[in-house]
Amino acid sequence: MASLASVPEVDRQHEGVRSEALAAVILVAFLAAAPFMLYPVFVMKALCFALFACAFNLLIGYVGLLSFGHALFFGWASYLTAYAAQSWAMPPGIAIIIGTATAAALGIVAGLVAIRRQGIYFAMITLALAQMMYLVALRAKLTGGEDGIQLPSRGRLFGVFDLNNELTMYAFVAIVVLAALLLIYRIINSPFGEVLKAIRENELRCVSLGYRTERYKLVAFVLSATLAGLAGSLKAILFQLASLTDVHWTMSGEVVLMTLVGGLGTIFGPVVGAFFIVAMENYLAPFGQWVLVIQGIIFVACVLTFRRGIVGELAHWLRVKL
Amino acid sequence: MFEIFGIPSQALFGQLLLGLINGSFYALLSLGLAVIFGMLNIINFTHGAQYMMGAFLAYLLLHYLGIGYWAALVVVPILVGATGIVIERFLLQRLRGLDHLYGLLLTFGLALIIEGVFRNYYGANGQAYEMPDALTGGHNLGFMFLPNYRAWVIVFSLVVCFGTWFAIEQTRLGSYLRAATENPTLVRAFGINVPRMVTLTYGFGVGLAGLAGVMAAPIYNVSPQMGSDIIIVVFAVVVIGGMGSIMGAILTGFALGIVEGLTKVFFPEASSTVIFAIMIVVLLARPTGLFGRGI
Amino acid sequence: MRRPTGALAAGLTMTVAVFLSAAAARADDIQVKLGVLTDMSSLYADDTGPGSVAAAKLAVQDFNPAAHGMKVDIISADHQNKPDIGANIARQWFDTQNVDAILDVPNSGVALAVSEVVREKNKVFLVSGAAISDLTGPKCSPNTIHWTYDTWMLANGTGKAVVKTGGDTWFFITADYAFGHALERDTTAVIQANGGKVLGSVSVPLNNQDFSSFLLQAQQSKAKIIGLANAGGDTINSIKQGAEFGITAGGQHFAGLLVFIGDVEAMGLKVAQGLVLTETFYWDMNDATRAWTKRWQVDRPGKFPTMNQAGVYSATLHYLKAVAALKSANDGKAVVDEMKKMPTDDPLFGKGIVRADGRKIHPAYLFQVKSPAESKYPGDDYILKATIPADEAFRPMKDDHCPLVTN
Questions:
Q1: B25-54 pLDDT, tens per residue?
Q2: Chains with ≥3 Cβ pairs under 8 A against A?
Q3: Left if phi > 0, otherwise alpha if psi is -120 to 50, otherwise beta: which for B66?
């Protein structure tokens, strides 16, 4: 069964590294200039979602598992970060670590349940698990339900950097997200990553070669969940608010959309997709509910005719790896 | 009035009745999903939105054309089923041969479009749909108060569910359907138009969703998000029941509705999540679902 | 041919002079931007929403900015009852659109979130739509004024009246967010202070469509009064579905703790008759309110203004007067202090004041919904049962626990 994101591997390793390195340089240059050209909060929001989408892409693009419930990790990490910062008066660095650790723990539990099935079942199970935790968030005292958790201030990072200053916060977010992207890149291009790609192409053959594929899938799942949690934690500090929107199934759908639009199974696809979708929502905000319709149209269009996504098409056209 | 486990019978049977009604909707919707999945191997995420369309069409027919509930019960499923046929013929068919997950993504996108369009015109508010006169009121049975309309919902759902099961499992047309699921090429060789059967099956499954929508209109407010709220629960129902069997979908739907109702009596805080908790347990113990044949 | 250079030159000079003076005037004009942040699409849309925007526009019209050397713009947005959307819109409005004051904000959860953003950016927040009494209590802010009403006022109006007429056992159906919990809390205090008992309560998600299982629980409790600590679409659904289960036939009564005229119109008098409610504005009170309603209905034909929408008008007018007195809108806290110094006066609420804790004070009215037979014309929905004077209608400052009020 052809897997979802079989981007044909271009058998030119050096050229692959060259094109990816060039793209990385362009990205860093853009991010360095961005806060002076655009509204910094917008860029930071896009960066958080870029990380979220990259984490999601790790699972679908490189293992072939479509998780429809990634908001679970994103949202609950954001809740725990906000809760730690507010009720336990933790500094932002510690709060983010707590949030990310929560996502990792949830990833282990959810992974153990969900990895048992594949394909469509896996998608539905992740969706159902996320919905269950949404309903828990709705009622739990910890999350503040409909009202969410609000932070009066972003706090001081390491006791030194005042994150309420937009540029300082921007530098922090950009560095963390770039570091995480680098981590993902290293994971994908490691021996572990090669096994994941092999599982995506033909799991049975992998098993016959002696690999414990269940273990590999679980580790990938937990990694994906943890990085999604990191994105959620950053977002909680950025907006000083954790709310039900972050755990709702529409959030899970949005990250799928971003990755699909950007390009499944590419390194930079999710980043481009995230910026595109966040910009689109910003631009269309005055038009209220049309955002939902347009998101749906983009989904349908992408699935029917634009399966490689923006970066995927670009990579295909230029015959490089991105 | 008597008491069971310290709960007054009025409360217990009242919640059980509500649970049975929820179960009727779960059964109808998971039946539609099972039929579609059986034929097309596609998870129809649009199912919730099509259920919502059914309810809205009933509302619009009443308010703009004066067409009442009884006529809507017949007309609406046909209309909604027709939209399903259009979707299958022009969109889903292009995904034949691709990974099934693309079908999920496409139907998800369609669900967003449909819900977004209705939200634009109706906001997130519910519209009221009057109950048909013949079914208003209720009977006081002594141990509980039974509203007539809700009793009708249960009876009619049972009829539709078992009617569908009978048609698929016991008739010749049903046997063609089941054969085409297992080996479409061979069935085509017998001269049966398989693509058309697939299209019509999708339309039928979607029509079931529309029918459920009409039935829901008088008791649940007609609102654009009514579909997305219920569809994820129905997914859990379907995972628990296992997607292979029609009877499995029906039984699981009703059973889980009852379980939910009982939970509301004894442990109300858990009532919204109990179905998902059961799903986790079933997945750990029997991954293919209670009635599933394994995939 | 004579070249009309003379006339041309004179004409050009005059035109230039006019432009220069107009530009000069514009440069001197104080620019004020108001943002109406409200619910445009969900359960509170009819009671606030576009009607609030219409009310704000009327206030700007009546204030006549040109006469004060000011220029006033109004923008609006839909917060969809989500605190994150509301807070983000507020933040973006302040950062990128130079908004000076935010108006309305129904939904107490969103209001609490927005209040923090307003405080951080030192702008002004005039809450007309949200009810949570904490906005002048533990969550009070030097940048926020709570207009129109709050949960304490509702509890002491409707709650007290219902208990005094024999409704001494209660069961609450509560909207599960800040507003519902605050309303339940404040009303419980009133019930207990007047010798009543609360037999139980159930929390319901916001914008819930099916109340049947909660109504069953209320029925099971055998409480005389089913207190609806919810509003807008939720209240309408609770009451309508209650009829289906024979609630009132069984001897229990609904107490609508927050009911707007928009809800009464949506339910119809047949369903809503007899409901007791507390509001601070009724369109048919006197000639001034009737005249204003006629002007408002130009934008909203067939509808009747609620107290929230009237509150947006009153708050906007008073704000603009304060800005005119200070000749600047930049320092939010200063404008709010000025608004507290000046007494208020408008055709809708009459004379009133803004207290040190940010609470706007005016009288409250206890109404009862008319039966279809008693209603003579569209919108003739209420009978005035009692007037609660301004100094009794709202919580005394000493009970606030507001950090702004030193003691």
A1: 999 999 999 888 877 778 899 999 999 999
A2: B, C
A3: left
Closest C-alpha among A165, A209, A143, A223 to residue A40: A165
- What is the spatial distance between Cα A75 and Cα A80, in angstroms, rounded to a whole number? 9
Other CB atoms within a 10 A radius of the CB of residue A224 amount to: 28
> Does C196 lie in the same domain as C166?
yes
Q: Is B249 helix (H, G, I), strand (E, B) or coil?
A: helix
- Give yes or no for B212 touching A (CB within 8 A): no
Which parts of chain B are beta strand (E)?
3-4, 7-8, 138-140, 145-147
Unique residue bearing structure tokens 């053959």: A205
Q: Average per-residue pLDDT in chain B?
A: 86
Q: C interface toward A at CB cutoff 8 Å?
A: 40-41, 77-78, 81-85, 87-89, 91-92, 95-96, 108-109, 112-113, 116, 120, 176-178, 203, 205-206
Q: Which domains does chain B have, with CATH numbers?
A: 3-285 (1.10.3470)
Q: List the domain range (segments joined by +) for residue C347.
A: 30-149+285-362
CA distance A29 to chain B (A): 34
- For residue C230, is it within any domain? yes
> Does the residue C61 lie in any domain?
yes
**3-state SS assignment for residue C201:** strand
Where are the domains positioned within chain A?
13-318
**B239, B253 Cβ separation under 8 angstroms:** no
Contact residues, chain C, for A49 at CB < 8 Å: none
Specify whether C222 is located in the same domain as C244.
yes
Same domain, yes or no: C249 and C374: yes
Dist CA A45 CA A278 (whole Å) = 8
C270 and C301 share a domain? Answer: no
DSSP C30: E
- What does B81-123 look like in DSSP terms, one character per residue? HHHHHHHHHHTGGGGTTS-HHHHHHHHHHHHHHHHHHHHHHHT
| d(C-alpha C192, C-alpha C169), whole Å | 10
d(CA A311, CA A270): 9
Greatest CA separation found in chain A? 56
Does the beta carbon of B90 lie under 8 angstroms from any beta carbon of chain A? no
Residue C15, pLDDT above cutoff 60: no
Distance (Å, whole) CA B61 – CA B72: 7
C256 membership: H or E segment, kind and range: strand C253-256
For Cα atoms A271, A273, A279, give the angle at the middle one, nearest 5 degrees.
105
Distance between CA atoms of residues B113 and C290, nearest Å: 43
Same domain as C263, residue C165: yes
Q: Judge: A249–B228 Cβ closer than 8 Å, yes or no.
A: yes
Strands A161-162 and B3-4: unpaired
Say how far apart CA A163 and CA C95 lie, in whole Å.
Answer: 17
The values of phi and psi at residue C383, to 5°, are: -110, 135
Is CATH 1.20.120 the right assignment for the domain spanning A13-318? no
Give the model confidence (pLDDT) of A203-235 as tens digits: 889 999 998 889 999 999 999 999 999 999 999
The interface predicted TM-score (ipTM) is 0.87
B149 with B17: CB under 8 angstroms?
no
Provide the b/e sequence for B80-119 (b: ≥16 CB within 10 Å).
bbebbbebbbebbeebeeebbbbbbbbbbbbbbbbbbbbb
Judge whether C8 lies within some domain: no
> Does the beta-carbon distance from B15 to C246 stay under 8 Å?
no
Cα separation, A63 vs A216, whole angstroms: 9
Cα–Cα distance measured from residue B28 to residue B208, given in angstroms and rounded to the nearest whole number: 7
- Within a domain: residue C381? yes
CA–CA distance, B70 with C260 (Å, rounded to integer): 35
Distance between CA C91 and CA C87 in Å, rounded?
6
Looking at residue C74, which CATH number applies to its domain?
A: 3.40.50.2300
SS3 C140: coil
In this predicted model, what pLDDT tens digit does every residue of B208-234 receive, in sequence order? Answer: 999 999 999 988 878 888 898 889 889
Number of domain units in chain C = 2
